[in-house]
Amino acid sequence: xxxxxxxxxxxxxxxxxxxxxxxxxxxxxxxxxxxxxxxxxxxxxxxxxxxxxxxxxxxxxxxxxxxxxxxxxxxxxxxxxxxxxxxxxxxxxxxxxxxxxxxxxxxxxxxxxxxxxxxxxxxxxxxxxxxxxxxxxxxxxxxxxxxxxxxxxxxxxxxxxxxxxxxxxxxxxxxxxxxxxxxxxxxxxxxxxxxx
Length: 196
Known about the structure:
Blueprint: H1 4-14, H2 25-44, E1 50-53, H3 60-67, E2 71-76, H4 79-91, E3 98-100, E4 113-118, H5 129-142, E5 143-151, H6 156-162
Parallel strand pairs: 1-2, 1-4, 2-3, 4-5
């Protein structure tokens, strides 16, 4: 993992604008909340669970689950992100206890939560197998026996393949299809003129 302070600083700087990664953050929260709530209810057979969102950021999943009646605690490596999560939760009339913590060292006793969430690509920030094992071991440690672990990652490689960021350059000719002196589509594309 990059230096912890570097990662924390990056997310501290991003916290004020993080909602902008969504076209509509509240709609995204609602959609994710419905999906996670359904998994919690089906997996645990309960209407309300104690949930740790161990990379809560500004509260996208944590607030959404709290709005559905779950008792949610959030942790994140970014102090600015957790502070914003608390403010956003309060603005929506829910309480969100938080702590600044690294997911590899969670500040809770064994078996404390019914469910643990690590969503929106938090786990891939850990760049070594040892760090991933440490984080997953911590998540398991704070789960009660029979608890539910929910981890999501985004398939960025697949997204880039299916939706490239740019269209590759291609040559173009004049609208009537004749060869001539039409400008190429890009300064990088050169066309040879045919002289008969």
